[in-house]
Amino acid sequence: MDRTGDEVDTGAAGHPASRRDLTELSEAARDLDRRIEQHLARLRRERELRAHDIPGQRLRPSG
Description:
Blueprint: H1 19-53
């Protein structure tokens, strides 16, 4: 705790991390998570389109 009684997170080096830094990290993590979800959604859509472009390919005998 600091002098005012607020909890203070300490980093690996023992320096207190500011609340602003933690807020920025949280926002960056949420932004990255959103971008990953958008990318995965796009990959799923593309995979579905490719599956429709080549119907029944998996059902054909290979030999």
